[in-house]
Amino acid sequence: MRPYVSLRLFAVSLALLSAAPALADAAAGLDAYKRGDYETALREWTAAAAAGDVGAYSGMAWLYQFGRGVPRDDAKAVEWFRKAAEAGDATGQSNLASMYLMGRGVPQDDKLALDWLTKAAAQGNSGAQANLAFMYRNGRGVEEDLAQAAALYRKAAEQNVPTAQYDLYLFLSKGWGVPKDEEEALTWLSRSAAGGFAQAQAQLGVLHLTGMGVPRDDAHGVALLKQAAARGNFDGLYNLGQAYAGGRGTRADMPTAYALFLLAEKAGSPSATAARDRVGKALHFDQRAAMEKEAGAWRPGLPLPGLAGAP
Q1: Under 8 Å CB-to-CB from 279, ≥6 apart: which residues?
Q2: Which of 36, 56, 37 has its CA nearest to residue 45?
Q3: Is residue 215 classed exposed, middle or buried when 0-12, 13-18 and 19+ CB atoms within 10 A define those classes?
Q4: Which end of the chain has fewer CB atoms < 10 Å from its terminal CB, N or C?
């Protein structure tokens, strides 16, 4: 079975823009953008772009793509990304490819996306390498080639792209396109989790709770699940709910477990509904109502329901 995965697109990066040789106006535009002063960023980048600064082309595209300082306009974003791409800028090439993949501002076209990603990846652009790996992984615009996908994920992973590190973990742990190597796979999973990728944090947390391939450490497993759950990851929310329901690595707390299952269900967990119903039967009506209210108001970045001020 093909290991299909949904695309994780890498948009234009401020770090990449700032790394490019820039005229004074382009640098001033970047500083203004980081401050949230999009009017000044627009003025500075417009002047720099008129002077031929390639980094400013991508800056202008970014403003139009997300409607910052200007009305959102995908077609204009594509125009600016294309100017950067045709000037040989890897960031512009990668982002123009993303627009073709999404069909934003241009008709959706996997072949053109593949062409631009190949050019950007050849220049070492890590986002392009990861997205090109996706293309080979899923046979999008090119014949499926898991070995090529694995090689590209490795290149991006070595440039500290957490999502690519997680994908390389999957390939190594399952033997997709590469010899199976669980020890190296765990190294990449750990790096991805340390880099803040929620799915990696959730997966590593479960491994520590079960002792599969790593020393069993319930407390550390729960800590990792909390990090993933705080980002809204449904595996993190669901498995953290299971930990609170069973008192694994933390205190047993059925109301908190109930709230976490509610959030996991809302986030798309296929197992959360049954778990929510099971735990809910053990709670009083007022307990359920209180947790439902907390869960309804929760957003990623806020303290998790039932855990505000808790260890």
Answers
A1: 241, 245, 254, 257, 258, 261
A2: 56
A3: exposed
A4: N
128-154 burial code (b ≥16 CB/10 A, e <16)? bbbbbbbbbbbebbbebbbebbbbbbb
Cα gap 199→127, rounded to integer Å: 18
- Written as one letter, the residue type at 273 is T
Distances (CA, A) of 261 to 87, 104, 288: 50, 35, 12
Determine the distance from the C-alpha atom of residue 207 to the mean position of all C-alpha atoms in its chain, rounded to a whole number: 21
**∠127-128-134 over CA atoms, to 5°?**
95
Domains of the chain: 7-123 (1.25.40.10), 145-195 (1.25.40.10), 198-297 (1.25.40.10)
Cβ atoms within 10 Å, residue 186: 18
What token pair was written down for 306?
Answer: 């039932």
Residue 127 burial (CB count, 10 A): 28
Helix runs in 141-253, H state only: 146-158, 162-174, 182-194, 198-210, 218-230, 234-246
Q: Could you write out the DSSP letters of every residue in 152-165?
A: HHHHHHHTT-HHHH
The whole-model pTM stands at 0.89
Query: Of 86, 34, 80, nearest to 60 (Cα)?
Result: 80
Do the beta carbons of residue 68 and residue 38 sit within 8 Å? yes
